[in-house]
Predict the structure.
Amino acid sequence: MRHYYSQYNTRQGKYTNAIELRFIERAFAGMPKESLLLDIGGGGGRNAFPQALKGFQVVVTDIALPPLDYVMSRRHASIHAVLIPANIATLPFSECRFDGGLCIQVPDLVENEKNFFPAISNYLKPNAPFVVTISNRMSYKYVIRLLLNRQATETKRKGTGQTRVYLFTAAEILNRAQNAGFKIRAMEGYNWIPFSKGSNSRWIHCASIIEHRLMLQRIPFLSPWLIVCLQK
């Protein structure tokens, strides 16, 4: 059976995965065991299984069945897989059900669905933390994409079924979250490294050290990607 997050076994994948998991751990620190988490677009459970090992109950959702089948094949009692429709506002969950949530590296949903944050707010309990990643148009990676392949960038804007990133600034996306009633509790910039997700370049480790030493995570609004903890 296919491993649905094997791409994160690359050097670049491990780099982004480590940053995301550390941030998620801090965001959910202090939450009681057995808290119920909602993982939007969780695919094969890359983030769900580490949370389940900490004692949380996790509902993993995706619009595709094969990755959810993979999750269920691992038979973890604290993880439940739910196939969801593409319309985020019509998920099969009651209001104020979840103690926390996350949506990691699902830019098509977070950035291009204008009702995303109001819909998510309905499913969370008051004061629940919600961790989300967003790409940032106000970054050097967007400029490079534009210079090297302007036509491809324009095509992605029109929507061709490809993953669309860098369409908005981080400030624009966070403004949507605040308009939906969320407060920004913490944020961190990352993915400054100039390699693709599937890269195994030996220079990734060196680049990650430079990123850390220069404290680029403290410049979120110029960062290619942000990971943010919101609070309802």
